[in-house]
Amino acid sequence: MKQPERKSRNPLVLILGNKRWQFITIPLFAILCSLLAISVIILLVGKNPFAAFQSLLQGSGFLPKPTYAAYKSMLTDFMDTLDALTPMLFAALSVAVAFKAGLFNIGVSGQMLLSGFMATVLVGYSGLNAGIAKPLVLLIGILAGAVAGGLIGVLKYRFNINEVVSSIMLNYIFQYIISFFINTQFVDPVSRQSRNISQAARLTLMNVEIGGLKMRVPFCILLALLCAIILQIFLAKTKQGYELKAVGQNSLAAKYAGIRVGGNLVFAMTLSGALAGLAGVTYYLGYYQSIQPGVLSSLGFDSIAVSLLGNSHPIGIIFSSLLITAISRGSTYMSSVVGVRQEIAALVTGMILLFSACGGFIRYKVNQSGSHTGKKGEGKP
Question: What does each C-alpha distance from 260 to 37, 244, 247, 250, 251 come to in angstroms?
């Protein structure tokens, strides 16, 4: 008969081997490894890694700075980080939805640009009051992004056009058409960007005075967090969410099980596009208030890596988005205080994503070690 399985004495296997929590423990382990690696690099350039990491946290509002300018404090820095976090969170959730259905939405930047432009033209220049303008901006962003994402899904379903190809092509189409309209109809002759939208339509409240401080208040950060929670419930607890994941894991098996594969592909891309649309309006009509013609936001591409870092888990994406946004926001302060170049912040991000990309391999090795440990305890009577 079988003897009781022996647990591994390797503390790493004990910590990472619990499959229920691997979506948290393995990304954290990857982040820790990346920080150790980047510490070595910072030491090689003659700087103190602890001072560098501390300055990153200070610049993003997680630790206090030694001094502040008038009307500024750690809270104002943190609110700036939350403002930058909002579109990143929406964009990463957009990528995650597509991933769950086995799709790769690389067109988030184009969908952001389309939704931001439509909301800018229809509402940003309209003169509507804030009570009508702000909800209307969100609605237009959702609809414009959903149409763009749904089109990619239809092309995939009806004509079997790879979603990567169609989304990249749509990125270029949106980029050049919108650039033409901005340069010919809506350009600001001084900044060479689109004219600034009205404050009533802007999704970030600027220079709000609270306790003697002037800060940015991101209007939609709570909406972004709520979307992450709702998306997790949808994927984990609903029939539609189960079918969407089943299609992503094995579309052929899902088809034989009676699941509408094509309908779920279109639905997933439509939902992904709607979230990308929310990212677009919170970026172009929130964090910024104008659009630079001929340029796709790098945030749409960064969100792919952020989603992978969060293991495409909506709750994990909240923390991965916060981490990457904090590093990006704190890079300028790190450069000015510690003397570490801003490119090091990009290197920190790159190292984190590189180690996170090995998450599947780490999970395989940990699970393999655990299973081998159990087999040693087997024996015959």
Answer: 46, 9, 9, 12, 9
